[in-house]
């Protein structure tokens, strides 16, 4: 399971002899370990899909000067 750290672990903390990833860094961990870290709130699962963004059309962007309907 691929995870991204959402908190910084204390300096010098190790996991199986390796330093923990820094805040925001990603790492591959066994599924059970990853699920535990996510449940504890110290990491989030990294999914293979990139976040989808909605395209805005010119009509949606220009709905009048006050943001209301023209």
Number of strands: 5
Structural class: alpha+beta
| Helix and strand sequence | EEEEHEH
| Percentage of residues in strands | 15-25%
Straight-line distance between termini: 50 Å
* Helix content bin: 10-25%
Major sheet: 3 strands, antiparallel
Helix run count = 2
Ranges where pLDDT stays below 50 over 5 or more residues in a row are none
Strand arrangement, largest sheet?
A: 4-1-5
Taking all Cα atoms into account, the compactness measure Rg is: 20 Å
Q: Give the integer mean of the pLDDT values.
A: 81
Shape: globular
Structure description:
- With 70 residues, this protein is of the alpha+beta class.
- The chain has 2 helices and 5 strands; from the N terminus they run ββββαβα.
- A 3-stranded antiparallel sheet has the order 4-1-5, covered by helices on one side. A two-stranded antiparallel ribbon has the order 2-3.
- The model has no long low-confidence stretch (mean pLDDT 81).
Quick rundown:
With 70 residues, this protein is α+β, with helices and mostly antiparallel strands.
How is this fold's topology laid out?
Blueprint: E1 2-5, E2 14-15, E3 18-19, E4 26-28, H1 31-40, E5 43-45, H2 58-61
Antiparallel strand pairs: 1-4, 1-5, 2-3
Structure characteristics:
70 residues, alpha+beta, two-stranded antiparallel ribbon, 2 helices, 5 strands, 20% helix, 20% strand
């Amino acid at each position: 399971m691929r995870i991204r750290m959402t908190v910084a672990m204390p300096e010098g903390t190790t996991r199986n002899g390796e330093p923990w990833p820094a805040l925001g860094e990603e790492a591959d961990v066994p599924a059970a370990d990853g699920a535990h870290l996510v449940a504890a709130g110290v990491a989030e699962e990294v999914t293979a899909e990139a976040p989808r963004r909605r395209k805005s059309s010119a009509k949606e962007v220009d709905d009048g000067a006050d943001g209301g309907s023209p």
